[in-house]
Design brief:
Number of helices: 5
Helix content: 55-70%
Radius of gyration: 17 Å
Structural class: mainly alpha
């Protein structure tokens, strides 16, 4: 497996597939490898997350593994920040809600989302696309 033996820095159960796909794209490999060749690995997600993140970190292909892992995780954090900005701009602010109430709700949700925002998962990219689509629909 790609991330085997890299220590306790990886949340393998939650981010292994997304991380492996993004790293494979950054190295120019196929994210849907032949299933008859060992080591067997199944990439069960659509390739959009792996393609976007993998191409963003492609200039760092000579960096060590942990640097590339942290870059993929940083992308998840960037998506979460963009989600909060879009939520404020297109959904909360037009309703007249004060910024303080929004910041308190963000502070309360960060404890729940922190584990996801600091792992290499494709959830936040999907949520970001959904919020952008809703903002386009509302404008």
């Amino acid at each position: 497996m790609l991330v085997m033996g890299t220590g306790s820095y990886l949340n393998q159960s939650a981010e292994n597939a997304s991380l492996a796909g993004a790293l494979d794209v950054s190295e120019g490999k196929n994210i849907f490898p032949d299933k008859t060749v060992i080591p067997f690995r199944l990439y069960t997600y659509t390739p959009l997350h792996a393609w976007i993140v993998g191409n963003l970190i492609k200039p760092f292909h000579n960096s060590n593994l942990m640097t590339r892992v942290y870059l993929v995780r940083l992308f998840s954090l960037f998506c979460l920040i963009a989600i909060y900005i879009l939520l404020w701009r297109y959904y909360v602010s037009p309703l007249g809600t004060s910024l303080l109430i929004f910041l308190i709700s963000v502070a309360l949700s960060v404890s729940e989302l922190a584990n996801y925002a600091l792992t290499a998962r494709n959830d936040f990219l999907a949520i970001l696309f959904e919020i952008v689509a809703g903002a386009i629909f509302l404008s």
